[in-house]
C-alpha cells in the first residue's frame, strides 16, 4: 500500500497545484487506492481506462520522443528477463530446480540399474546358476560376477577378495563350495569378457547413483531443511518434484499434500463413488509404516499437516534451518505414541515457542558466520587491490626512470659531440680518495673559437660527399 518514491515524485511534478479537481485514470485498482491514500488524488478505474492504457502501450514509441519501436522491443525483452530472474530466487543455493532434476534422474537410475542387473543375472546364470540364491542383491551380484569370472578358476586364494565384496565369510565360503559343485554350463573367454564389461558398467552406474543421492541430500539440506528433517530427503524431494516447486508445495493445503501422488486413485474413487485414498507419496515415510492399520489414515493426515507447515517455513524464511523440522518430527513421534499407549502429546503452541527460540539462536549464529566470511573476503579483496596498485606504481616508476635515463644519456652524447672535453686528470690524495677538480666555465668567445674548427671539418666532409655524388650521377 506504500506508493513508490519515483512514482510519487513523478506525480508531484506532473500534477497541477490544485490536485483535488484532478482525476487520474489508473488501470489497477490497488494502485489507484494507493495514490488516493498517499496524495489525495481521485483515481478512476474501468473499461475506458483499460482501453486507453492499451492504446498507450500499443502506440508508446510514437508518443515518446526519441523512442523507436526497436528500442521499445528491447526494453520489453529486458523487463521480461528481469521478471523471470525475480521469479527464480536470487540465492543460488536455494534453487529447487536442481532437486527436481536430481530426483527424476535418481528414479530413472533405479529402473535402469534394476533392468541391467537382471540382465547380468540371466546372462551369468547360464555359467553359475547357484550364485543367484547366495547373493540376492543386484549391485553385489554384479561385483561378485566380475570378480569370479570363470568359476573353475575360483580357489581358496580368492576367499579374501570375496569376503571384501560380500562382507561375510560364511557367504564367501558358500560361493566357493557352490562353484565346485555347480550345474552350470561352460563358457567361452569371449563371453566372459562381455559379461565382465557389462558388469563393470552396471557397477559404475550404481556408484554414480550413490553420489547422486549424496548430492540430493546436500541440496535438500540447503533448500528445504525442515521438510527433509521431518519426512526424509527422498520423500521431500518427490513432493517438491510432484508439486513443481517448493513455492507451489507451500501453497497447497494439507488435504492436497496428503493425497499428492494418488490422483488416479482419487478420481477413480470419485467416479465410482468409492473410498478416497488416505495417502499418496507420504506413504513412503517411516511413520505410516510404523502405525497400526486402523491408525494409518489418522497419522497420514497429521503428517501431511506437519509437512505443509515445514514447506511453508522453508519457502518463506530468510535463513532456513532444520530446527522446526526436528520439532515437528518430535510431534509426529509423540502422536504415534499417543495412538499406541494413550500418552497425551505436548501442545503445538509450546513446541513452536521452543522452536522459535532455538531457531533465533541458530539464525544469529549463521549470520555471525556470514559476517565473518564477508569481512575476510573484503580484506582479501582489499589486499589484492593494494597489491595491484603497488605493482602498477612500480611499473610506472620504472618506466619513468628508464625514460629519464634515456634522456640523460642522449643529452650527454649531444654534449660530448658539441664540446671538446678538457684534459683534467684527478690527483690522488694521501688517503687514496680521488677528487675531481671543478672545471671553470669558459667565456663565450673562447667556446666559439673551440667549436669553429670542428664545424669547418664537418662542412668540408659534407662538400666532399656532395661532389662524389655529382660525379657518380654524371658518370
TrEMBL record:
<protein>
    <recommendedName>
        <fullName>Nucleolar protein 56</fullName>
    </recommendedName>
</protein>
<dbReference type="InterPro" id="IPR036070">
    <property type="entry name" value="Nop_dom_sf"/>
</dbReference>
<feature type="compositionally biased region" description="Basic residues">
    <location>
        <begin position="462"/>
        <end position="475"/>
    </location>
</feature>
<dbReference type="GO" id="GO:0030515">
    <property type="term" value="F:snoRNA binding"/>
</dbReference>
<dbReference type="InterPro" id="IPR012976">
    <property type="entry name" value="NOSIC"/>
</dbReference>
<dbReference type="InterPro" id="IPR045056">
    <property type="entry name" value="Nop56/Nop58"/>
</dbReference>
<dbReference type="GO" id="GO:0031428">
    <property type="term" value="C:box C/D methylation guide snoRNP complex"/>
</dbReference>
<feature type="compositionally biased region" description="Acidic residues">
    <location>
        <begin position="422"/>
        <end position="440"/>
    </location>
</feature>
<dbReference type="InterPro" id="IPR002687">
    <property type="entry name" value="Nop_dom"/>
</dbReference>
<keyword id="KW-0539">Nucleus</keyword>
<feature type="region of interest" description="Disordered">
    <location>
        <begin position="390"/>
        <end position="475"/>
    </location>
</feature>
<comment type="function">
    <text>Involved in the early to middle stages of 60S ribosomal subunit biogenesis. Required for the biogenesis of box C/D snoRNAs such U3, U8 and U14 snoRNAs. Part of the small subunit (SSU) processome, first precursor of the small eukaryotic ribosomal subunit. During the assembly of the SSU processome in the nucleolus, many ribosome biogenesis factors, an RNA chaperone and ribosomal proteins associate with the nascent pre-rRNA and work in concert to generate RNA folding, modifications, rearrangements and cleavage as well as targeted degradation of pre-ribosomal RNA by the RNA exosome.</text>
</comment>
<comment type="similarity">
    <text>Belongs to the NOP5/NOP56 family.</text>
</comment>
<feature type="domain" description="Nop">
    <location>
        <begin position="223"/>
        <end position="341"/>
    </location>
</feature>
<comment type="subunit">
    <text>Part of a large pre-ribosomal ribonucleoprotein (RNP) complex, that consists of at least 62 ribosomal proteins, 45 nonribosomal proteins and both pre-rRNA and mature rRNA species. Within this complex directly interacts with TCOF1 in an RNA-independent manner. Core component of box C/D small nucleolar ribonucleoprotein (snoRNP) particles; the core proteins SNU13, NOP56, NOP58 and FBL or FBLL1 assemble stepwise onto the snoRNA. Interacts with NOP1 and NOP58. Interacts with NUFIP1, RUVBL1 and RUVBL2; RUVBL1:RUVBL2 seem to bridge the association of NOP56 with NUFIP1.</text>
</comment>
<keyword id="KW-0690">Ribosome biogenesis</keyword>
<dbReference type="GO" id="GO:0032040">
    <property type="term" value="C:small-subunit processome"/>
</dbReference>
<dbReference type="InterPro" id="IPR042239">
    <property type="entry name" value="Nop_C"/>
</dbReference>
<dbReference type="GO" id="GO:0042254">
    <property type="term" value="P:ribosome biogenesis"/>
</dbReference>
<dbReference type="Pfam" id="PF01798">
    <property type="entry name" value="Nop"/>
</dbReference>
Amino acid at each position: 500500500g506504500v506508493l513508490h518514491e519515483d512514482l510519487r515524485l513523478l506525480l508531484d511534478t506532473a500534477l497541477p497545484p490544485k490536485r483535488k479537481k484532478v482525476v487520474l485514470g489508473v488501470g489497477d485498482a490497488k494502485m489507484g487506492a494507493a495514490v488516493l491514500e498517499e496524495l489525495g488524488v481521485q483515481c478512476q478505474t474501468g473499461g475506458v481506462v483499460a482501453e486507453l492504457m492499451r492504446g498507450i502501450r500499443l502506440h508508446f514509441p510514437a508518443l515518446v520522443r526519441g523512442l523507436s519501436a526497436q528500442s521499445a522491443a528491447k526494453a520489453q525483452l529486458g523487463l521480461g528477463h528481469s521478471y523471470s530472474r525475480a521469479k527464480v530466487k536470487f540465492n543460488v543455493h536455494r534453487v529447487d530446480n536442481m532437486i527436481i532434476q536430481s530426483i527424476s534422474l535418481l528414479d530413472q537410475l533405479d529402473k535402469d540399474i534394476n533392468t541391467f542387473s537382471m540382465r547380468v543375472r540371466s546372462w551369468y546364470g547360464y555359467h553359475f546358476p547357484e550364485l543367484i540364491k547366495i547373493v540376492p542383491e543386484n549391485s553385489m551380484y554384479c561385483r561378485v560376477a566380475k570378480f569370479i569370472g570363470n568359476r573353475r578358476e575360483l580357489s581358496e586364494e580368492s576367499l579374501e577378495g570375496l569376503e571384501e565384496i560380500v562382507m561375510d565369510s560364511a557367504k564367501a565360503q558358500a560361493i566357493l563350495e557352490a562353484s565346485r559343485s555347480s550345474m552350470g554350463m561352460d563358457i567361452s573367454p569371449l563371453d566372459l569378457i562381455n559379461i565382465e564389461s557389462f558388469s563393470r558398467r552396471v557397477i559404475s552406474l550404481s556408484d554414480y547413483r550413490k553420489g547422486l543421492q549424496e548430492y540430493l541430500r546436500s541440496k535438500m539440506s540447503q533448500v528445504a531443511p525442515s521438510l527433509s528433517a521431518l519426512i526424509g530427503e527422498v520423500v521431500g524431494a518427490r513432493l517438491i518434484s510432484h508439486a513443481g516447486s517448493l513455492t507451489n508445495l507451500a501453497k497447497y493445503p494439507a488435504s492436497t499434500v496428503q493425497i499428492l501422488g494418488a490422483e488416479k486413485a482419487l478420481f477413480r474413487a470419485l467416479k465410482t463413488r468409492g473410498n478416497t485414498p488416505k495417502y499418496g507419496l507420504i506413504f513412503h515415510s517411516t511413520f505410516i509404516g510404523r502405525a497400526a492399520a486402523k491408525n494409518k489414515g489418522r497419522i497420514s493426515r497429521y503428517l501431511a499437516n506437519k509437512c505443509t507447515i515445514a514447506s511453508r517455513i522453508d519457502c518463506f524464511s530468510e535463513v532456513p534451518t532444520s530446527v522446526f523440522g526436528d520439532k515437528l518430527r518430535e510431534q509426529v513421534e509423540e502422536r504415534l505414541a499417543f495412538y499406541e499407549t494413550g500418552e497425551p502429546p505436548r501442545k503445538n503452541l509450546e513446541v513452536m515457542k521452543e522452536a522459535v527460540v532455538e531457531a533465533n539462536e541458530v539464525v544469529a549464529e549463521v549470520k555471525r558466520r556470514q559476517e565473518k566470511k564477508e569481512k575476510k573476503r573484503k580484506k582479501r579483496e582489499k589486499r589484492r587491490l593494494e597489491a595491484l596498485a603497488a605493482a602498477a606504481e612500480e611499473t610506472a616508476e620504472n618506466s619513468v626512470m628508464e625514460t629519464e635515463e634515456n634522456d640523460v644519456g642522449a643529452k650527454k652524447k649531444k654534449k660530448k659531440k658539441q664540446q671538446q672535453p678538457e684534459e683534467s686528470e684527478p690527483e690522488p690524495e694521501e688517503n687514496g680518495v680521488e677528487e675531481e677538480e671543478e672545471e671553470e666555465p669558459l667565456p663565450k668567445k673562447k667556446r666559439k673559437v673551440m667549436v669553429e674548427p670542428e664545424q669547418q671539418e664537418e662542412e668540408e666532409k659534407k662538400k666532399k660527399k656532395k661532389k662524389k655524388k655529382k660525379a657518380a650521377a654524371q658518370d
